[in-house]
Write a structure and sequence with these properties.
With 806 residues, this protein is of the alpha+beta class. The chain is built from 21 helices and 32 strands. Strand 8 (264-270) and strand 9 form a beta hairpin. The protein is globular.
Length: 806
């Protein structure tokens, strides 16, 4: 993509605490390229840049994590605040900082100082305050370095929620139903708990955990929205299998679609540091990107890092629980929760030796606590990336990521020396006498014994095939000792990986364009497998036959314009999965978390229909054909009702869509804060992952951030971060990536100074000063009273202020 030079606007800002002059060059795509003379200044400027673009987002992130939402948004958030406080890190802070390596604390302190510097700047220039604060009456709070690490709950934690689902299904429907819900990989025999752990788990346990971990919503009856599991893809192709002789690395992490975007792209350049890529906005550093020699990225590796413990309580004192042969007292902490428009609340938190108590059942004399990696030092999600920002080789990277604790990930690596590799990273508890799949008694019988050593983490380095790839599938090597190292037994459907691997296997001259096509592929492996089976059937029912005839002429590509794609997704997602599950376990499907495709064993469903299986009975074909015919007929009827009687007018993208909704849009009754609707192809099982709500086909999980790196030719790299880099509705960078993302195209991710200078539209000159920050000079268009953005072509959005306490 050609980049034209222009004359950028220049703004000089004095900042307290800065050690030397620092520049932030913001390019046409909203990426801040930060040039500093010291590490302190680079992270301070990163904090300033993040706050400038995402202040309301990170303010809510911080307040949600620390349990302070009720102070801004009223009494309905008190319970969520209490739940969040249960999950904070409360251990030794010296051990915590040491876990991230030398310089981590200084980086977090400087990063927080940069956020605070921007808040000070806003106090002097209130017209630039983000509109969310102006319209809700909330105020941004200043940060402390500890805020970057004590909050754990912005990252995913496996597998507590699935442990609860499994316990519920077994309790209600038995082991056969659980076998229909989820296979265990590698093959494993489930052992049922005994004693109090075998009792039904109250629904309140899962509800409280969800309150403490889900994203907040505003203006609805609920106060949080579930963070669907999602997934990710990544791969590296070695130099011997690319057209240029340079490695290619690709990454597209899938998470809940959000506005602003979940990740923030920045470039940090200082002596001995030059790194660009994406990270979590509330954490210093870069987790996915490249430096001058090495490229790195990650997907989730579904290792089990959490366990639910069930306790017998003393009959006369609910703060005493049975441990060994004694009664042990819980730690009891009282905390004050400020509440907007009401008196502050005193909330009592309870902790056992294992961790926070989620729920106490006083009637049954039971307590339920979670032990997780979050209680261990060094488990702030994604902050472990600070150790590998300067890595220069595979061996350096392997050592640096050895300290990474959570979330558990598949790190994929490539460098200018031609090395590529995959390695699992994360702390996996050693469970000597159980597998972590179900709740256990908290009486001392089931205790962690440290963590799997980093040198045991499975890995592949420079494989003979010339490529590595992951897509959240079960990828433990065949010779991995899973009986000793019980990493986990629940993984994503391997359909995405199967499409990716097939393409990488066939292509011996891979290009950036090939990776682009693969990242944006809507090919459904599940559809291809089912279509091959369908071609051997001849339904008798008229509607089923019409559905059969349309589907069997299809190529399995869920493009937005596909008519068979619309029919297939209605059939597969709304009818077929449920029908097979209900045949195997009548009445159980509603308890399988059917709204989350990653929670369903879709690969098992397809396997049962495409390979003869005794699980469908002695007369396999009769049962299978009846299931197929019944569900095809129902799907045809629903598709006609939704899209009309003429299949020539059907389009998958007319139903399946993305809409980046601002969290305050409903509370403020202002849809202009949200983006436009974007027609989308794909599904939760295609490489271009686009999982959706079955009730309205709105996409909820997918790759809002994508990156493809030409390793060594860094200015050829491309990315997209939808809907845009900025969280300010007044900024042109609020949604300027949406067109590229919606059309499956990319934007330049520039690295060299000359290319960046040519694409710069705003130059922020940060200068040291005394207390307070001020604009000391500016050239270019007058922007007095507006946010310092490159192009205020998006009209200012202010609207009516609301009372959040009511």
């Amino acid at each position: 993509m050609e980049v034209s030079s222009q004359h950028p606007r220049v703004e000089a800002i004095e900042i307290e605490g800065l050690e030397a002059e620092t520049e932030i060059l913001i390019d046409r795509w909203g990426v801040p390229h930060i040039y500093a003379h010291t590490d302190h200044d680079i992270f301070l400027a990163q904090g300033f840049a993040v706050a400038r673009d995402r202040l309301w987002q990170i303010d809510v992130w911080r307040k949600r994590g620390l349990g302070l939402l009720a102070a801004d948004y009223g009494a309905s958030y008190v319970e969520a605040d209490r739940a969040a406080r249960l999950l904070l890190y409360r251990g030794d802070m010296d051990a915590e900082w040491a876990a991230y390596g030398p310089g981590a604390r200084a980086a977090a302190e400087a990063f927080s100082r940069g956020i605070n510097a921007y808040i000070t700047f806003l106090e002097r220039h209130p017209g630039r305050m983000p509109v969310e604060f102006l319209r809700t009456g909330a105020q941004p709070s200043r940060w402390f370095a500890e805020d970057c690490v004590r909050i754990r709950s912005h990252g995913p934690l496996f597998n507590l929620s699935r442990e609860l689902v499994r316990a519920n299904v077994i309790d209600r429907f038995g082991l056969e139903a659980e076998a229909a819900r989820r296979r265990l990989e590698p093959e494993w025999k489930l052992t049922l708990p005994e004693g109090i752990a075998a009792e039904a788990i109250p629904a309140e346990v899962g509800r409280i955990f969800a309150l403490g971990t889900n994203q907040p919503v505003f203006g609805r009856n609920e106060v949080s929205v579930p963070d669907a599991t999602g997934g990710s893809n990544n791969w590296a192709v070695g130099a011997s299998r690319t057209a240029t002789g340079r490695p290619i690395l690709a990454s597209d992490p899938h998470r809940l679609l959000s506005l602003p975007a979940l990740r923030y792209v920045s470039h940090l350049s200082a002596p001995n540091l030059d790194v660009i890529g994406a990270g979590e906005p509330g954490v210093p550093g870069i987790a996915i990107g490249h430096n001058r020699t090495s490229a790195f990225c990650l997907t989730i590796h579904l290792a089990d890092q959490a366990d639910l413990y069930v306790y017998e309580l003393h009959p006369n004192d609910p703060t005493l629980y049975c441990y060994g042969s004694c009664w042990e007292r819980m730690d009891v902490i009282s905390e004050t929760v400020p509440v907007r428009g009401a008196n502050e609340r005193i909330e009592t938190l309870f902790f056992t030796r294992h961790g926070p108590v989620l729920y106490v059942d006083n009637e049954r004399k039971r307590a339920y606590a979670v032990r997780s990696i979050w209680s261990e030092p060094g488990a702030a999600p994604y902050l472990g990336a600070l150790r590998y920002l300067r890595t220069t080789s595979w061996n350096d990277f392997v050592e640096a990521r050895a300290h990474w604790r959570t979330p558990p990930v598949n790190h994929v690596y490539a460098d200018t020396a031609g090395d590529i590799g995959w390695i699992m990273s994360g702390s996996v508890p050693v469970r000597p006498n159980w597998d972590g799949l179900l709740p256990v008694a908290g009486d001392g019988t089931y205790e962690w014994r440290g963590f799997m050593q980093a040198d045991v983490h499975p890995r592949i380095h420079n494989p003979e095939c010339g490529w590595v790839a992951t897509a959240n599938e079960m990828n433990l090597p065949p010779d991995f000792n899973h009986a000793t190292h019980k990493v986990g037994f629940e993984w994503c459907d391997p359909s995405r990986y199967r499409v990716i691997a097939d393409q990488l296997r066939q292509n011996s001259a891979h290009t950036l364009e090939d990776s682009q096509r693969l990242q944006t592929s809507f090919v459904s492996d599940s559809a291809l497998r089912l279509l091959a089976m369908l071609r051997g059937l001849t339904p008798r029912d008229t509607a089923a036959r019409r559905a059969h005839d349309l589907l069997t002429q299809w190529d399995g590509d869920l493009k937005p314009g596909s008519a068979p794609g619309l029919l297939f997704e209605i059939w597969f997602r709304k009818y077929l999965i449920e029908a097979v599950s209900e045949y195997l376990a009548p009445g159980a499907y509603a308890h399988f978390e059917p709204g989350d495709i990653a929670a369903l064993d879709t690969f098992l469903v397809v396997d049962l229909l495409t390979k003869p299986s005794k699980r469908l009975g002695a007369d396999y074909e009769t049962v299978r054909d009846a299931l197929i015919e019944r569900t095809l007929s129902a799907a045809w009827g629903e598709t006609c009702a939704e899209a009309g009687e003429d299949p020539a007018t059907w389009r998958w993208g007319d139903a399946h869509h993305a809409l980046f909704e601002h969290p305050l849009a409903e509370l403020l009754n202002d849809t202009t804060l949200s983006t436009r609707r974007v027609a989308k192809g794909g599904s939760g099982l295609t490489p271009n992952a686009a999982d959706y709500r079955p009730e309205d086909f709105r996409m909820i999980v997918g790759a809002s951030f994508r990156m493809i790196l030409d390793v060594g030719a860094w200015d050829n790299c491309i990315f997209v971060n939808a809907p845009g880099q900025s969280g300010d509705p007044r900024s042109s960078h609020y949604d300027d990536h949406l067109d590229a993302w919606g059309s499956e195209t990319y934007l330049p991710l520039l690295f060299s100074r000359d290319k960046i200078e040519a694409a710069t539209t705003l130059r922020l000159a940060l200068r040291p000063t005394g207390p307070g920050g001020k604009v000391v000079g500016e050239t270019g268009p007058d922007t007095q009273g507006t946010n310092p953005v490159e192009d205020n072509s998006r009209s200012a959005v202010f609207g009516t202020r609301v009372d959040c306490s009511s």
